[in-house]
Amino acid sequence: MKFTEQDIQQIEKKGLTLKKVKSQIEVFKSGLPPINLQAAATVEDGINGIKQLSEKEKAHYINFFDSRRDASGILKFVPASGAATRMFKTLFNFIDSYNPDAESINSYINRNKDTDLSLFFVGIEKLPFYDSVNKAAATYFPDYTSFSSDWQKYAFVKTMLDEDKLNYGFYPKGLLPFHKYKDHIATAFEEHLFESALYASSNGVANLHFTISEKHQHIFDDEFKRIEKIVQKKTRTKFNIGFSFQKESTDTIAANPDDTPFRDNTGRLSFRPSGHGALLENLNALHADIIFIKNIDNVVVFKYENEVSSHKKILAGLLIELQEQVFLHLNALDKKDISDDQLIGIAEFLVKRLNVKISHEFEKYSKKYQIEYLKEKLNRPIRVCGMVKNEGEPGGGPFWVKEESGNISLQIVETAQVDKKSKQQKEILKNATHFNPVDLVCGVKNYKGKKFDLTKYVDPKTAFITMKTNAGKELKALELPGLWNGSMANWNSIFVEVPLITFNPVKTVTDLLKTTHQIK
User: Fold this and answer.
1) From residue 195, how far is each of 206, 208, 276, 296 by CA, in Å?
2) What is the Cα–Cα distance from 322 to 423, expressed in whole angstroms?
3) Among 195, 233, 457, 514, which lies 20 to 30 A Cα-Cα from 25?
């Protein structure tokens, strides 16, 4: 496999090295091992991976967090780089294939069995952008008001999506109209500010960091300038907003089906964004004691925000309490006079509170090695993750996983990581009781106050290889270990059951019609 001088220049311009690109090609050739599931994490008996807290415990953790928050540096990290294109997939298909002069919309819906499009038109007046799109449609189509009902609906969708009109498909989700209040329309970006004032702030200041596409920064800046004073006044909170972009150096090379480098029509190497695992670099560059992680589209209207924020406080209170205990144990391990009973107590803490499986040989180790062993297990980043009860089809979520070393640990697993050819693995996947809503609170500093280098806790073998197409040609794409999957594989993980109210993503435009996105 030879690379030309032009190839090497292209690689280095992206911030990559030839060695790294060659190693990515080797991954395509050798493949990646599927994850080895041992069991689904459940709440049974309270010892199988997911904590089910009592009302008394919830109240304790809320109060504990509130008592500690002003002494902590808190930050909210929001992946927000995705454009809204996929959110409007059904509508793009509609304007591409529907002819209002040839058939009715009802006929089109029935012919295509398009229930999502039917729901869109039934609830159209409840959508937060209905009035503004209607008004714009009358400008772009001068005879709009005299059109037939079907022609009006067709023109409405074209006004939303056409590049020379409102072009909603271009916008990032965070800047689309999400919620309609009596006196204004709120974006998801704005809702994150309101929400962060409730739980992700200390001493009257909320620090938020959004990972965005570089081409969208100016519109995020404009939106913040527009709403800053209003939100600050309503919440009595000052907001520090930071932005970063997915680094080009995290892109991965694409390969042909025969594992040779894929080249475009001009002969240049083809690179692709490597999934949300690339954002580990962005997260690693931030400095805070406590970091909340939540996706941009997972927000609610104001009347549900207090309920949602209480569950974030519960997770954070548990994290801070555990972290303080971890730090006490690590300081004790630094002392020369630590007793055997203390060592056993620390080992029991790892098992019972941090879900860490201790070696059966632990008690046979020398005291010196016991101390080293416990330190290595304790001195890691910690994450407390909310898990929602699965009320639909089982899918990716919390599992006990066996690593190549034989160690068993709690992990968040995507269905794409599981060997679907294995009957046993499929059965374990089927037994999942909860799923991952991306609801994390992270402790990223050690007991000496120094920030962990998060890149050292990644399991590189949990990357993904997927099949894609480019200009009609098949290619292999490599995604880095997911941000909350393999990128955090070697963190200490605690999973806590949280209610469905905390999970309100907008994957399609009709999700905006759900109760948690509507005022009435």
Assistant:
1) 10, 11, 23, 12
2) 38
3) 457
pTM of the model: 0.95
What kind of fold does domain 5-82+172-320+433-517 have according to CATH?
A: Spore Coat Polysaccharide Biosynthesis Protein SpsA; Chain A (3.90.550)
238-266: b or e for each residue (b if 16 or more CB lie within 10 Å)? Answer: ebebebbebeeebbbbbbeeebebbbeee
Q: Are 74 and 137 in contact (CB under 8 A)?
A: no
Phi-psi region of 347 (alpha: psi -120 to 50; beta: other; left: phi over 0): alpha
**Residue 379 Rama label (left phi>0; alpha psi -120 to 50; beta):** beta
Structure-block tokens of residue 242: 């930071």
Residue located via tokens 């069991």: 39
> What's the full length of the chain, in residues?
520
pLDDT digits (tens, 9 = 90+) for 19-52: 999 999 999 999 998 899 999 999 975 567 999 9
In sequence order, which residues have a C-beta less than 8 Å from that of residue 376 and are 6 or more positions away? Answer: none
Q: What is the pLDDT of residue 46?
A: 57
Structure tokens at 75: 């930050």
Q: Mean pLDDT in the chain?
A: 94
Q: Where are the domains of the chain?
A: 5-82+172-320+433-517, 89-170
Task: Give the Cα separation of 487 and 482 in Å (integer).
Answer: 6
Tell me the average pLDDT across 305-329: 98
Strands 473-479 and 74-79: unpaired
Per-residue buried b or exposed e for 97-108, using 16+ beta carbons within 10 Å of the residue's own CB: ebebeeeebeeb
Looking at the DSSP assignment, which residues form a beta bridge with residue 51? Answer: 496
User: Alpha-carbon torsion 448, 495, 75, 242, what sign?
Assistant: positive
β-pair partners for 221: none
Identify the H or E element spanning 226: helix 217-235
Q: Which pLDDT score, from 0 to 100, does residue 48 have?
A: 73
The tokens for 260 are 């040779």
Write down the residue that tokens 């503004």 correspond to: 132
Helix %, strand %, coil % for the chain, to 5? 50, 20, 30
Written as six digits, the tokens of 56 are 């008394």
Q: 271 forms bridges with which residues in the sheet? A: 253
Provide the token pair at 332: 């004790």
Per-residue pLDDT, 479:
92
- Whose tokens are 């009596």? That residue is 182
